[in-house]
Amino acid sequence: MRAYNFSAGPAALPLEVLQQAADEMLDWQGSGMSVMEMSHRGREYTSIHEAALGDLRELLAIPSSHRVLLMQGGGLAENAIVPLNLLGARRRADYVVTGSWSGKSQKEALRYCDAHVAVSTAAGGFVRVPSLDEWQLSPDAAYVHVCTNETVNGVEFAEVPALGDVPLVADISSHMLSRPLDIARYGALYGGAQKNVGIAGLTVVIVREDLLDRALAICPSAFEWKTVAQNNSMYNTPPTYAIYIAGLVCQWLKRQGGLAEIERRNIAKARLLYETIDRSAFYANPVQPDARSRMNVPFTLADESRNAAFLDGARERGLTQLKGHKSVGGMRASIYNAMPMAGVEALVDYMTAFEREQA
Ligand SMILES: *Cc1c(COP(=O)(O)O)cnc(C)c1O
């Protein structure tokens, strides 16, 4: 009855998580109320909040140098919140533009500083990750910003370079919790939860503690990382239900074997889909093999006039939300943690059958 949902976000959740949320909807663990109805200062919600924070730390192996903040506003708000918190006395920040999301980050930052494009891969159509020797870094940059998984273009950094003293800031919205990350390399990381961590309304920020004293005076208090950190992400009412769901997703991930195991599955799922695309003359993905995203797989049909028929046939088979982003066209299959291998197998079976029909 449930579809295989390939949405880029808000995206599919693990069935077990939805079932547990349903079971606990009216009465959370004998409290007599739904999580939605709890005071965020109460004993019950506090235990949910602490467990979610603890499980995020454990799964991502976050070192004690870094704080985890549970915020609101999504990835887009962070595009402003990052410069507001990190510029300090500096006027410049460097942006690595590898797709539409990092392009948006750079444009938003222009409201607050000289947001310098250190490198852009727009000319080639956002199909690669530029090597460090192409990055034109500024000596006076407050930070360097990257988007390590470009959700629209399907470009993912295999790893980020070590930059030395300048803080590296990463938008990890669409691959957070899909693989282990070396958090110590980063000054700050952020992402909306609705791709791979849970539901819309929660933004997870991970920030190195020594960077918490650089906020500009005009930064709204509720968006000042230091204030949020000092109040254990309860300066204002946190998105309690979204935090509860993120906590259930973390518990589910731990039951699966943690991020090393989920990464192994994500590699296998992505490999099957890219192999199907590459083997065929009918489907194409333009991204360089070493920069291909394991999470978001855009692909086009050789005969674009067949796009609507492809989507209709997919929907009939319970394969939904495959339409590509308008800026890239074609299709996009987002295969986050919650997409099982069986869903990717159903997709490639359908793709193979559809191609055969065209012959
Ligand atoms: C979805 C997404 C965003 C925007 O997130 P919102 O929660 O809608 O603000 C930003 N960056 C990346 C990489 C995304 O995938």
UniProtKB/TrEMBL annotation:
L-glutamate binds at R41. It comes from the Bacteria. One of its GO terms (molecular function) is O-phospho-L-serine:2-oxoglutarate aminotransferase activity. Its EC number is 2.6.1.52. Keywords: Amino-acid biosynthesis, Aminotransferase, Cytoplasm, Pyridoxal phosphate, Pyridoxine biosynthesis, Serine biosynthesis, Transferase. It holds the Pfam family Aminotran_5. PROSITE patterns: AA_TRANSFER_CLASS_5 (PS00595). It catalyses: O-phospho-L-serine + 2-oxoglutarate = 3-phosphooxypyruvate + L-glutamate; 4-(phosphooxy)-L-threonine + 2-oxoglutarate = (R)-3-hydroxy-2-oxo-4-phosphooxybutanoate + L-glutamate. The keyword Metal-binding does not apply. Its main location: cytoplasm. Pyridoxal 5'-phosphate binds at W101, T151, D171, Q194, N236, T237. Binds 1 pyridoxal phosphate per subunit. It is an enzyme of class 2 (transferase). InterPro entries: Aminotrans_V_dom, Aminotrans_V_PyrdxlP_BS, Pser_aminoTfrase, PyrdxlP-dep_Trfase, PyrdxlP-dep_Trfase_major, PyrdxlP-dep_Trfase_small. Its cofactor is pyridoxal 5'-phosphate. The keyword Amino-acid biosynthesis applies. Pathway: Amino-acid biosynthesis; L-serine biosynthesis; L-serine from 3-phospho-D-glycerate: step 2/3; Cofactor biosynthesis; pyridoxine 5'-phosphate biosynthesis; pyridoxine 5'-phosphate from D-erythrose 4-phosphate: step 3/5. Coiled coil: none annotated. The modification N6-(pyridoxal phosphate)lysine is found at K195. Residues 4-347 form the Aminotransferase class V domain. It is found in: Cytoplasm. Belongs to the class-V pyridoxal-phosphate-dependent aminotransferase family. SerC subfamily. Catalyzes the reversible conversion of 3-phosphohydroxypyruvate to phosphoserine and of 3-hydroxy-2-oxo-4-phosphonooxybutanoate to phosphohydroxythreonine. Homodimer. NCBIfam families: PRK05355.1, serC_1. This is Phosphoserine aminotransferase. It comes from Robbsia betulipollinis. The lineage of its organism: Bacteria, Pseudomonadati, Pseudomonadota, Betaproteobacteria, Burkholderiales.
